[in-house]
Design a protein that fits this description.
Layout: E1 2-6, H1 13-22, E2 26-30, H2 41-46, E3 54-57, E4 64-67, H3 69-79, H4 92-116, H5 127-161, H6 174-185, H7 208-217, H8 219-227
Parallel strand pairs: 1-2
Antiparallel strand pairs: 1-3, 3-4
The structure holds glutathione.
Glutathione (GSH) binds at residues 10-11, 38, 50-52, 67-69, 105, 113.
């Protein structure tokens, strides 16, 4: 049995949607962030980083314990290749898939983490300096994220020109779920768009906004919205 340790709307939502898309059996285990359960000794044994998600696969002895969202997604895509949620290994499409998965998890996601936790990136002598430094870190992260949303929007425009509605073209895959998760995190962006960008959050982009709605409308995503009891606005 597969068990996903999750918290609503956290990075665990990508493997959660993926498992629903695949239609395989799995269990959910809530990691209660309100009680700091992700920093408990028991959870740190699963993921020493104290971060969500973790996937357990007890088809093995000892069970496989896996952290890092992208690694979990790759593992699931490889475990269930017949579900076609990643291009076949050894193809050009698979190469593009790796590029987007690593860009999403390694470039866009850290920028979003910086936006949400700017105080972790400052080291000031007093509270007032810390507040102003954190505000600058947050604003610069938002600006970088806007440029990255443009990159996603451009890719979706390219796909559309070739008759595809997903990041890789016609094949819906893990990277669409990942982009959806990160795109929806931008729904809380405050303030005017940075002057150099035309739009601030995912909803404001010509190709990215309808993409977000297409992903949201999928049956698997709707089931996750209900199971995680997500609150409006979803995107
Ligand atoms: N690189 C990790 C990042 C996971 C991550 O940042 N998870 C967040 C929830 S979205 C978390 O657990 N945050 C708790 C914390 O920062 O203390 C992954 O993709 O699995």
């Amino acid at each position: 049995m597969l068990t996903l340790h999750y918290y609503p709307s956290n990075a665990s939502i990508t493997p959660h949607i993926l498992l629903e898309e695949m239609g395989v059996a799995f269990e959910l285990k809530l990691v209660d962030r309100t009680q700091d359960a992700h920093k408990s000794a028991a959870y740190l044994k699963l993921n020493p980083n104290g971060l969500i998600p973790v996937l357990i696969d007890d088809d093995y002895a000892p069970p496989l314990v896996l952290y890092e969202t992208a690694a979990i997604c790759l593992y699931l895509a490889d475990k269930f290749p017949e579900k076609n949620l990643a291009p076949r290994v050894g193809t050009v499409e698979r190469a593009q898939f790796y590029k987007w998965l690593i860009w999403l998890s390694n470039t866009l996601q850290p920028a979003l983490i910086t936006y949400f936790y700017p105080d972790r990136y400052v080291n000031a002598r007093n509270a007032a300096d810390a507040t102003s430094a954190a505000a600058q870190v947050k604003a610069s992260a938002q600006q970088r994220i806007c440029a990255m949303l443009k990159q996603l929007d451009d890719q979706l425009e390219t796909s559309a020109a070739q008759g595809g509605e997903w990041l890789l073209g016609r094949q819906f895959s893990v990277v669409d779920i990942y982009a959806f998760m990160l795109g929806r995190w931008t729904r809380v962006f405050e303030g005017a768009p940075p002057a150099t960008q035309k739009a601030s959050n995912a909803e404001a982009w010509a190709h990215l906004a309808p993409f977000m709605h297409r992903v949201l409308a999928r049956g698997a995503v709707q089931r996750v919205v209900a199971k995680e009891a997500l609150k409006l606005p979803y995107i």
